Amino acid sequence: LGYVVMHDDEQTEETDLYAAYEDDMFDDDRLHEILGLRGYNATFKTADYEWVAEHAEVKGILTVRDDPDTYVDSWLVAAPFIDIVQRAPFKWMPTVRELMPELRAEYIDETTGGDVEKYLDRDVLREYYTKYTKEVSRSLSIFVAC
């Protein structure tokens, strides 16, 4: 789509920004302002759909899989990453320590709707994916489905 996106690879390059945000040094609006100053004009990591809905100048892009099971299959390949980075020697690395709150939120909490013990459970992942995509679709008046 031609955007400069804040995503997984870029997250590690912006560790200082994530650390300051986690330390409540600024709010979501300032976070996105700083990301813009650093050259990003789209994010996959930092804005939830509630924030997007509150900002008329922002557009949301809802990407979906062919069906919920396709999402679950894909996510179950990626999700064990969190188990790796929570173990030695990775958990001792400064970048991992700084990003751990965001990683835990992304890999464990956000994908399950808070049912963190079941972050690898197919049924929980499928159910929350379906619920989440419906919520986003209802909340955003302008979005592009990809």
Looking at this protein, list some descriptive labels.
146 residues; two-stranded parallel sheet; 8 helices
Helix and strand topology:
Elements: E1 5-6, H1 8-13, H2 15-22, H3 28-37, E2 42-43, H4 49-53, E3 60-62, H5 68-78, H6 81-85, H7 94-109, H8 122-139, E4 143-145
Parallel strand pairs: 1-2, 3-4
Helix pairs in contact: 2-7, 5-8
Can you describe what's shown?
The chain starts with a strand and ends with a strand. With 146 residues, it is mainly α. It is 54% helix and 7% strand. Helix 2 (15-22) packs across helix 7 (94-109) and helix 5 crosses helix 8.
Summarize the structure.
This protein is mainly α.
Put simply, the count of helices is 8
Q: Could you give the count of β-strands?
A: 4
Measured as a percent range, the helix fraction is 40-55%
Question: Structural class, from secondary structure content?
Answer: mainly alpha
Q: Low-confidence segments, ≥5 residues, pLDDT <50?
A: none
